[in-house]
Design goal:
This protein is of the alpha/beta class and 216 residues long. The protein has two domains: 141 residues, HAD superfamily/HAD-like (Rossmann fold); 65 residues, Putative phosphatase, domain 2 (DNA polymerase, domain 1). The protein has nine helices and eight strands. A six-stranded parallel sheet has the order 5-4-1-6-7-8, sandwiched between helices. The chain has a two-stranded antiparallel ribbon with strand order 2-3. Helix 2 packs across helix 3. The longest helix is centred in the middle third of the chain and has 18 residues. The radius of gyration is 17 Å and the shape is globular.
């Protein structure tokens, strides 16, 4: 039985891809670089914003200086527009409510920078008592490094075998493996099922409520 369920944010709890794409395209356009279709960003996100900017920049332009320039244009735009089109995936609010009703602890572990992670959770899940909401924090390695998950385990005071980690990408599956917790891939997010299967997670599910029998 699982006592704690840790969720990735982007592509798992929330569909945020349009707002991420729009703000990155805004930054690229301001700096004179070509932009990308929204769908292309499904394969650019997941490893933190600096990696997103590196992937979005043209070949030959992926320097630390240019990444910083994109970041400077992206951040104020995304802070204003990160909830324009982002929405919870179908069944997610109901799932979280049911997990809490069954006495489970829930948490968020994201590679999105901390301020935006907290802002989106506060906006869309304001009445949901997560025990921890962690994004990318200064001085802490991003997923698939296990630090973010291990920090949550300490707060919850649980053992790895009592934890289910839920995410939509290979990075998430690696994070679970590196943390010693059970991995559950979801097929409604940004990445294809084949990417999840490559990491042989314990579970792969198609809809939110499929998590309930797993944690029982």
């Amino acid at each position: 039985m699982k006592k704690l369920i840790i969720f990735d944010l982007d592509g798992t709890l929330l569909n945020t891809i349009a707002d991420l794409a729009n703000s990155t395209n805004h930054a690229l356009r301001k700096l004179g670089y070509p932009t990308h279709e929204v769908e292309a960003y499904n394969f650019m996100v997941g490893n933190g914003v600096n990696k997103l900017f590196e992937r979005a920049l043209p070949e030959g332009e992926k320097t630390e200086t240019n990444i910083s320039r994109v970041r400077a244009e992206f951040m104020p735009h995304y802070d204003r527009h990160n909830a324009d089109e982002s929405r919870p995936y179908p069944g997610i609010p109901e799932l979280l409510k049911q997990l809490l009703a069954e006495g489970k602890m829930i948490a968020v572990a994201s590679n999105k920078y901390q301020a935006a992670t907290q802002k989106l959770v506060d906006r869309y899940f304001s009445e949901t008592p997560f025990i921890a909401v962690f994004g990318q924090r200064e001085g802490i390695k991003v997923k698939p490094d296990p630090t973010i998950v291990l920090d949550i385990l300490k707060i919850a005071n649980v053992e790895p075998q009592e934890v289910l980690y839920v995410g939509d990408s290979g990075v998430d599956m690696q994070t679970a493996q590196n943390s010693g917790v059970s991995a559950c891939g979801v097929t409604w997010g940004f990445r294809p099922r084949t990417e999840l299967e490559a990491f042989q997670p314990d579970y792969i599910i198609k809809k939110a409520m499929d998590i309930l029998p797993i944690v029982k």
